[in-house]
From TrEMBL:
Superkingdom assignment: Archaea
CC cofactor note: Binds 1 zinc ion per subunit.
Organism: Halobacterium jilantaiense
Pathway(s) per entry: tRNA modification; archaeosine-tRNA biosynthesis
Domain tRNA-guanine(15) transglycosylase-like, chain residue ranges per copy: 12-340
Protein name, entry field: tRNA-guanine(15) transglycosylase
InterPro entries xrefs: ArchSynthase1/Queuine_TRR, TGT-like_sf, TgtA, tRNA_ribo_trans-like
Family annotation (Pfam families): TGT
EC number of the protein: 2.4.2.48
Residue positions of the active site: 93
Keyword terms: Glycosyltransferase, Metal-binding, Transferase, tRNA processing, Zinc
Entry keyword Nuclease: no
Cofactor(s) the protein requires to work: Zn(2+)
GO cellular component terms, A-Z: cytoplasm
Amino acid sequence: MRDVFEVGAQDGLARIGELDVPRAGVTVETPTLMPVVNPNLVTVEPARFESEFGAELLITNSYIINNDDDLREQALDEGLHEMLGFDGAIMTDSGSFQLAEYGEIDTDTEAILEFQRDIGSDIGTPVDIPTPPDAEREQAEDELATTQDRLELAETVDVGDMLVNAPVQGSTFPDLRERAGEHAYGTDLDLFPVGAVVPLMNQYRYDDMTEAVLGAKRGLGRDAPVHLFGAGHPMMFALAAALGCDLFDSAAYAIYARDDRYLTVSGTKHLDDLHYLPCDCPVCAAHSPDDLKQADDDTRERLLAEHNLHVSFGEIRRVKQAIKSGNLMELVAARAHAHPTTLDGYRALLDHSDQLEASDSASKGAFFYTGAESARRPEVLRHHQRLDRLDVDGDDVLLTEGDSNHRYDESWNVLPPFGPYPSALATTYPLTAETPERMDRAGYEAAAEGVRRLAAANPDTEFTLAHDGWPETALATVPERVDLYNSATGE
């Protein structure tokens, strides 16, 4: 792997990065969105991507270009940038998508990489095998081995200063994804797309997508730039960034527009169902739904595609700001609760809080408790782990949600979902958390787990928990040797 990616701000696995693309002579800030350009069917002129939408990188398909005589001749004669009219960086796919769709393509890794080099691609892609979800393990292993052979072949191809992708396959087997990540990271290739997840996203299986990506991330180094192939819907950009993905590509902006579909950060709407346009982009500010419905087909398609691009790039900027501010998980939670399947993805992410915690900053802005899932965030896990290392002074200690009591040797505060902590830490992150007055059961249960861990770490200390009417499910976690006092009832 060449040294082309520098990580800046981080929030969990998400990060702001700088991707150096030497052939284009540009540095791309990530997370970033790459509009997909079909050279046979251009909905929005690529020259507008950078000036109007902020695109720094786009993606097109070298296999399509190579198999069309006119496009091939034009690309070889003019170069890809001139042909598409785009000054930023250009990534090219190899035909693997066509391979997944049709089962066979008439090119190979060496030939397609040389063609991508010759037409001036800045980031090229070998021909990997995109194993579909739910394949038999034997098939997934065999096809992964073929992909790995092709990555090793790609290392030997003279590509000049073109960067090269090293796709990470493995179907829906997280351990194979991890193995694939380790192998890809060990090559001299540059970017690491997680492939064959489009069917999962099309089926709204965001939990399985999450497991696949996190498996790949466990195999890749922290400095590996990760591309989530086919992640083009703005409703899942926050989740994808939280998984540690840096590049996304969107054909959805154009494909959906052809079917009169209107993208939002909470899902997709059909134009026929809209009485108002719930967006303030230039298209929506200047038009009503009736305006779009009454426009000719080409104009309506173009305007919807422009809206879809505006809302997509707007969400990318929102994700970046959340990473910088350290509150990406709050944005993920907000997006997740807009649809049951994105909530599945968020919950699957929290199943791996230990993986998130390893790269999460120990200090950032306020922690906002936004629902039961917040009780499983890495900040809560980290606090529980650190309880083992905090000193308890005294033989008789009060753990209280209310005021301290001088009858005890020492008093610790208690804050759901974190649980107990010394008062000296009250002004430190994440114990400055904003929590609701009406805490849910999950928050109390997480706090009780903190009490359990503190008691286990201090077996010779007597503890009293003064709680404000915790539910029985939480109190059941508290060890029997901890005295309980319900301050709400005085019992």
